[in-house]
UniProtKB/TrEMBL annotation:
Its EC number is 2.8.2.-. Belongs to the sulfotransferase 1 family. This is Sulfotransferase. GO terms for molecular function: sulfotransferase activity. InterPro entries: P-loop_NTPase (IPR027417), Sulfotransferase_dom (IPR000863). SUPFAM superfamilies: P-loop containing nucleoside triphosphate hydrolases. Keywords: Transferase. It comes from Thalictrum thalictroides (Rue-anemone). It is an enzyme of class 2 (transferase).
């Protein structure tokens, strides 16, 4: 295996200096590769994912931009797909003792640590990823695996990222220098954020979801908060495990919504004090307010106008309402 890893990593080390590099909305250096921005380690991992991953038809791939509700989506899909194995009210349900990122791994994080991971778990295998559609492995595109894309209003993504950056980045990078929110916002508006621009990423998956709805279910964070019952039914149907009338009558959908709600998950001990997943970052970093429209408390009116303009310009006539 070392023989294969070595040339690949040389290829990456040769590629990296040739890529445009800028500091992002969290003041970390990102590299522009094929229209999207990556940390160096994420790009190397995304390339390994694309090169080596062999999708199976039964796979489930959850895609989102960072800070758009990935943690929530992972918990919902895990609870839906494992509801026969663990009834939702089971005192031993894994989501009571494991953060959602522990039950549904980020595939690029797996590849960051191991170029040849062992994915032999029983189907369906569920993975999360932040990579754009154009970077997905061929086998994902040609298999019948089902994808779910979760998008969120970019103004809320920015505010969530701003807080996350200030809370988490100094712990991971002790020499990190803080920047002003104005500076961070300018960079975000240029699309310079992990796996961003988030509106370009959303657009890729939006187009695919309109062309091949059986492959990609396109969800919005705002719709999940508006009508979780309806959205859970859509998810279950898309994944080929619709709720039976008996389950609906027994309140299983409501139970899943409650199990995975912000209030419930964020108050579990594992999510309040655990830091096993991305040390030294605490699991609590993935839970802040869980609200729609918190941008109103942070962005100035001129920031709102600016970001709306950037997004409208990119998405006009795409039919994607962000
Ligand atoms: P806020 O910072 O706006 O509160 P990600 O999981 O992609 O990192 O996104 C994190 C955002 O999702 C945070 O948003 C977080 O509070 C919110 N979130 C996490 N779990 C949630 C849940 N169960 N329900 C609703 N929102 C949730």
């Amino acid at each position: 295996q070392d023989v294969q890893v070595q040339p690949e990593s040389n290829e990456f080390q040769e590629l990296l200096p040739s890529l445009p590099c800028e500091r992002d909305a969290m003041n970390l250096p990102l590299y522009l590769y094929k229209g999207f921005w990556y940390h160096d380690h994420s790009l190397e991992a995304a390339m390994a994912f694309r090169r080596h991953f062999q999708a199976q038809d039964s796979d489930i791939i959850l895609v989102s931009a960072p800070k758009s509700g990935t943690t929530w989506l992972k918990s919902l899909v895990f609870a839906i797909t494992h509801r026969l194995q663990y009834t939702v009210t089971d005192q031993n349900h894994p989501l009571l003792t494991t953060n959602p990122h522990g039950v549904v791994p980020f595939i690029e994080v797996v590849y960051r640590h191991n170029k040849f991971p062992d994915f032999t778990s029983s189907p369906p295998r569920i993975f999360g990823t932040h990579v754009p559609y154009s970077m997905l492995p061929k086998s994902v595109k040609t298999s019948k695996c089902r994808m779910i894309y979760l998008c969120r209003n970019p103004k809320d993504i920015f505010v969530s990222m701003w807080h996350f950056g200030n809370n988490v980045v100094p712990k991971r990078f002790p020499s990190w220098q803080p920047i002003t929110i104005e500076e961070s916002f300018e960079r975000f508006c240029k699309g310079i954020a992990m796996f961003g621009p988030c509106w370009e990423q959303a657009l890729e998956y939006w187009k695919l979801s309109t062309e091949k709805p059986e492959e990609v279910l396109f969800l919005k964070y705002e719709d999940l908060t508006e009508d979780i019952h309806y959205q859970l039914k859509r998810i279950a149907e898309h994944l080929g495990c619709p709720f039976a009338p008996d389950e609906e009558n027994a309140g299983v959908i409501e139970d899943i919504a409650k199990l995975c709600s912000f209030e419930h998950l964020s108050n579990l001990e594992v999510n309040k004090t655990g830091k096993d997943l991305f040390p030294p970052v605490e699991n609590s970093a993935f839970f802040r307010k869980g609200l729609v429209g918190d941008w109103m408390n942070t962005l100035t009116p001129s920031m709102v106008v600016k970001l709306n303009q950037v997004v409208d310009q990119k998405l006009h006539d795409s039919g994607l309402p962000l």
